[in-house]
Prior knowledge:
Blueprint: H1 6-23, H2 28-35, H3 41-47, H4 57-67, H5 79-88
Helix pairs in contact: 2-3
Amino acid sequence: MENxxxxxxxxxxxxxxxxxxxxxNLSQLELSLLMGYKSVSVVSGAEIYYKGKHFNLEHLLKISxxxxxxxxxxxxxxxxxxxxxxxxx
Length: 89
C-alpha cells in the first residue's frame, strides 16, 4: 500500500470524481442536483479540496451510482499522479 497524506488522498478523490463527471458530460450543478443539493458548493469545493472540503462516503456512494462508476475508481491514482510519484522515487 502506498504512503499518502490525507490531504493528497482527498485531492485525488476529488480529481477522479471530476474526471468521471466530465466523461459522463455532467456539469457540477447537474451532479449536485442529482445528489439532492440545490447548489454546486459541495461538488465544486470537494473536487478541488477548497478550504478542506472533501467528499464523504455517502457522497461517493451517491456519485458512483449516478455516474455508474465503481466507487473504487475514485480512490485510484490518476495518470498524472502516478507519473509524479514515479519521478520522486
